[in-house]
Amino acid sequence: MSQNDRASAPAPVGKQQSRHPKMRLQIGGPKKKRSALFRLNTIHARATWGVLSKYAIQSLQQLSDRHSLEVAGGEIHLLDNRWYITHAGLLQIARRNRCVGIRTSIEKGISDPGANRWVFKATVYKSPRSRGFVGYGDADPSNVSSLVHGAEMRVAETRAVNRALRKAYGIGLCSVEELGWAPRTNSSAPFDQPKASTNGNNGHHNGQPRLRDRLCLLIRQHHLDAGLVKAFAADYCGAATLRDAQRDQVEAFINDLAERAAKDRDGLICQLNSYSKSQEVAP
User: Fold this and answer.
1) Looking at the DSSP assignment, which residues form a beta bridge with residue 139?
2) Domain for residue 30, yes or no?
3) Containing domain of residue 222, as a range?
4) Pick from 188, 198, 245, 282: most CB atoms within 10 A?
5) How far apart are CA 130 and CA 56, in angstroms?
6) What does DSSP assign to residue 178?
7) Are residues 106 and 162 in the same domain?
8) Which 3 state secondary structure label does DSSP give 10?
9) What whole-number distance in Å separates Cα of residue 80 and Cα of residue 82?
10) Which pairing describes strands 82-85 and 76-79: parallel, antiparallel, or unpaired?
11) What is the pTM of this model?
12) Neighbouring-strand partners of residue 189
């Protein structure tokens, strides 16, 4: 073999791989990361919401692969077997895509401070030369949870930013903050009793998440013991179990629980712990 032939001959396979260890680590790296993220998301989701449907798992895999959203980071949330993105998740997507800025402004012409009705405009700029993606958000006492009454202005701004970010980055999921949870006290249906849905809203009542979802969200948000909360709720409603309580009673309990958790969480924990003792002595 001539000197030229030796120079042009391919090196042995083993030597080629050893010369480029970083290249070998990069091949398939993103795929492994997505797979690991999906596994972690599934573990956290089951620990938080229990058994997941096949549809929920498939959707979770798509969200993990496509947007790298994390359940543990509070970037997505499961309500009534549907995934919703959160404000934190949208901001993470914007950060990863190097969003250059978000501008918000109050729409004074259609806002009514006296009635706590606010309308915001948000513009997201994906790059320095971007003309901007616009989103609007409104909030008033009729379309926000009773838990955030008095904060309608901030809710409206967050909704506007969320809509603008979803447009900018092609996110089809509705965000949790855009949901309107209005109080319902005129229904006497038992807690979580299924109702016929005629508007295709997947079991929501007038577009509102079920009481169970609201209660689960509170438990997770304030790191409460779910078993103790259910025992407290049954006692609060004067029922043997939470399932036996009427819907208006459960809603009143959820509103009261949210207020106490926000103002005096330590006192609430002490009261919940008293139900732990009663459960220990129960036959």
Assistant:
1) 118
2) yes
3) 211-281
4) 245
5) 35
6) G
7) yes
8) coil
9) 6
10) antiparallel
11) 0.56
12) none
- Domain shared by 140 and 115, yes or no: yes
Per-position b or e across 100-111, b if 16+ CB within 10 A of its CB = eebebebeeeeb
Same domain as 36, residue 115: no
Residue 178 and residue 92 share a domain: yes
Tokens of 3: 């000197």
Closest among 209, 214, 212, 254 to 232, alpha carbons compared: 254
Supply the CATH number for residue 109's domain: 3.30.160.20
What pLDDT, on a 0 to 100 scale, did the predictor assign at position 75?
A: 94
Residue 8 lies in a domain: no
162, 182, 202: which is the final residue of a domain? 182
For the chain, the first-to-last Cα distance in angstroms comes to 90
Q: What is the mean pLDDT of each run of 10 residues along the chain (283 residues)?
A: 49 45 46 86 92 92 92 91 93 95 95 94 95 95 82 94 96 88 40 42 45 80 84 84 82 84 82 69 46
Residue that the structure tokens 């249906």 belong to: 189
Q: What is the predicted pLDDT for the residue at 239?
A: 81
Q: How far apart are CA 194 and CA 181, in angstroms?
A: 18
Give CA torsion, residues 217, 220, 223, 229, to 10 deg.
Answer: 60
How many Cβ atoms from other residues are within 10 Å of residue 56's Cβ? 17
Q: How far apart are CA 125 and CA 276, in angstroms?
A: 52
* Number of structural domains in the chain: 3
